[in-house]
Specification:
This is Antitoxin of type II TA system, VapB. This protein has one domain (about 10-40). The protein has 2 helices and no strands. The chain has helices at about 10-20, 25-40.
């Protein structure tokens, strides 16, 4: 699936730093997996 989004540069940089990834694609995959994991835990 292809997604286009406008994201603030600082938000992207911080997310990449926190996730330890080197590409925005990997960063977004990591963030999505983390979010899903949290939601499953809360159920």
């Amino acid at each position: 699936m292809k997604i286009t989004a406008l994201l603030p540069e600082e938000l992207v940089k911080e997310a990449m730093t926190l996730s330890g990834t080197t590409t925005i694609t990997d960063t977004l995959k990591t963030a999505l997996a983390h979010s899903i994991s949290i939601e499953k835990t809360n159920y």
